[in-house]
Amino acid sequence: MNFNVLRRFGVTCLFLGLSWSAHAALNLAGTVPIGPQVKVGKLDNGLTYYIQKNSRPERRLELRLVVKAGSILEDEDQLGLAHFAEHMAFNGSTHFKKHELVSYLQSIGLKFGADLNAYTSFNETVYILPIPTDKREDIEKAFLVLEDWAHGVSFNDADIDSERAIVLEELRNGKGAQDRMNKVLLPKIFSGSLYAKRLPIGTEESLKGFKFDAIKRFYKDWYRPNLMAVVVVGDIDPVDAQKLVEQHFSKLRNPEKERARSYPAIPVRKDVEAVVVTDMEATNNSMQVIYPVTEDTVVRTVGDYRQKLLERLFGMMLGQRMQELTQQSNPPFVGGGSSLNRLVPGYRNFSSGAWLGRQGVGPAMDALVLENLRARQFGFQSAELERSKKSMLRAVEQAHAEREKTDSGRYAAEYIRNFLEQETIPGISNELMYAQELLPTITLADVNAFAKTAIPGQSAKLLVYTGNAKEEGTPKEEQLLATAKLAEVRPVTAKEEKMLATSLMAKPPKAGTVVSETQNALLGTTELLLSNGVKVILKPTDFKNDEIIMGASRFGGQSLFGLADKFNAGYSSGIVASMGLAEFTPIDLQKMLAGKVVNVSTGLDTYNDVVHAASSQSDLETMLQLVHLKFAAPRRDEELFKSVLSRSQDYAKNAIARPESVFSDAVQTTLFNAHPRVWLTPRPADFEQLGMDRLRDIYQERFVSARGFTFIFVGSVARESALPLITTYLASLPTGDIKTAYADMGVRPVKGVVQKTVNAGSEPKSLVSIQFAGEAPFSEDEQFRVHAMMDVVNIRIIDELREKQTLIYGGGMGGDLFRTPYNHYQLGMQLPCGPDNVDKVVAAAFGEIDKLQQNGPDAADLAKVKQNWLIAHRKSLRENGYWLNKLQNITVYGSDPARIANYKKLVEAVTAADVQAAAKRYLRRDNYVQVVLHPEKK
């Protein structure tokens, strides 16, 4: 599927398609068609519609209203009003009074924000409405909602004034170092284009003072059918869906005198310019080299497609080279890369950028420019191209294998891009044909020729440095210019590609056997006991056609190591992984695994040792080989250790500069009385305590033995083909004596009421955290009641603090009941707001808690929570990840397996009295920690 297919590989890749005979000659002038999977039509009024039947998830319909109008169309008296109009769509319309719409949608199982949502950008506004299809009236009402959004928003003057405070809070939440630096940078990046003056959030002055007529005028001018699309994907008859679209949208009319829908031009930069921007709260130092914009053409023909495909291959190979630079013992930057970027419709550019390390601008600029020049002058090598082709083709094959089990939301996103960006939508079967036919025709000479034109030479450019204002050595603008000029004339040589082994293991380990095999009818699993004592659970499913996920967990983790080893234990698994396996570096492994769908990781969590893995069916052996090597052959590499240590220290250097990081640390230290085992924002000094041999010893101490692990496989796993691989790679793992229990490190919350104020940050914004924590008996029934109580509180926070009192834009409660390392609870509210509203927010939050404790939940609110749970659970039952999580809880924590089948009864059994009792038991006025962030005192 277009764009989504290769995102797992860290690149954006277009896959388009065309249906033809496998042996037919390609007509590069042929048009890329619309695939048979979707019906695309247009009403007489110009409204476009997309309809696709898709049963993943079952009994669910994804609806979208897409308006080809965003902030770029605002007049000078309308700054921020495209986004404001989107807000008003939820505040009253022809068929729904204010608050009625959100309340109704919650009643059928949707969560505000998580399910029901919308967004506004420069060129579009998109409304998102997922609907359960169990009841016909809900489907019809959903189309009525879309119709109201399209032409029936009320824009009541009083409601507009009420919403101002909420949108201003959203504006406040976005303020900070990046926002301040962007105000300087964006006019430069967009070369003075209108885009720099039309950020979707608008300005505080405009939001406070705009006239009612201004927002109504925007809606009237731009919310018109010839700028709209309706997307319908899900469990619905396409004929029925088309009738509903026609019924609700055919009567929409375009204005008699339309305003022209145009796209602003971005001037092409003609000179070399440098800009340096610093901020006291910036968390990292970075640099960019931004080259002039060029035209971004729309893909229409097979020839266009081939060119785009070639460009993505180029991007993948260049990205791989940049990643390799970070593996040096003294890397030139923490992270960096170069790529072609689509800025806005019609424009793209080539740019390079890096997060800077201790070496500063010079080495980073040299490395980026030299790598670009190397590719421009000498091109790439055949091995690089073949690896990228294999990865691309494999991604399309995977998407094709899952074509009938892909979520409707992903298809809906494709059709939105087709409407807004003219991205082609030929369907994945045709996309696979394209990949199979065209990838072999793209030669190394083709890619190298493109590199010469894509990577600019000594042309016009914008050099950007952003960093922390406290940093020493911040370059001057003239220094940036001189550094870039010097880098461009340094000598460069062709890249050398080293030979790689053809297999991960020279020979497989000596296989073990299966000692016993039992069936669990309730869970649909097969349980194996291997000859080395390791246990395996197989849960075959048909939720995906080609997905196997695996997990293993046992007690232990970081808790088994003393305070002196806190950082070595905490970072051990990540740093050990960064050194590779056996004789292979991480880059070697990445190259060897090109074209494979496989991922494996091991780790030390706080109280558990864990293994996570995933693969396709054909790559299961590779996955298990990697798992075996994670136990048997972690690699030692002093150069890579120094590299990751250097980059980690550099990354952490200014992490605490963010006011939110200061606040988060204050919450943790206050709640847990500054216990030394509590993790805070990373500091460079943390990494000074790391020793390569010690952290490797810690890792090997926990992974020298597989005793106590139960490896759980869920998905497209067939017993007959998996068993020989399991006995070879898992039954051969060592299982010597090892501690399989966690240690209680003594971390406990303070008791009583503790209140603290923190001053950090220059913007007028505050953050309130209210934490409730303490000991409590654990049971799964009680955990259920706690979750219900929190969800009710979140409904009340949105309804009261946001919608009625307009004190916040977002916020809520989270947390859980825990059984390790002792039975306890930790529940917390996080509420961003203005400094002047802190007392009101705290009073309102506790007011909702008081009402819940005194009166219990409103029956409608509890019903909304239950309906949302039931719909979410129905979807989860068809997901491999859900089953892996449940099976791990059963094997590690002894959870009751019957709760899965009895879920509906358990939900129905939760009463208002249960929720009220939970609120009284856990949200106590005599036991909480309240931390408030205020701006720094001036």
Explain what the structure shows.
The radius of gyration is 29 Å and the shape is globular. The longest helix is centred in the C-terminal third of the chain and has 25 residues, at 780-804. Helix content is 41%, strand content 18%. It is an alpha+beta fold and 938 residues long. The chain has four domains: 7-17 and 265-401 and 423-487, 2-Layer Sandwich (Cytochrome Bc1 Complex, Chain A, domain 1); 46-249, Cytochrome Bc1 Complex, Chain A, domain 1 (2-Layer Sandwich); 514-729, Metalloenzyme, LuxS/M16 peptidase-like (Cytochrome Bc1 Complex, Chain A, domain 1, 2-Layer Sandwich); 753-934, 2-Layer Sandwich (Cytochrome Bc1 Complex, Chain A, domain 1), CATH 3.30.830.10. Helix 9 crosses helix 10 (361-378), helix 9 crosses helix 11 (382-401) and helix 25 (838-855) crosses helix 30 (912-922). The strands form four sheets. It has a seven-stranded mixed sheet with strand order 13-14-15-19-16-18-17, with helices on both faces. A six-stranded mixed sheet has the order 1-2-6-3-5-4, with helices on both faces.
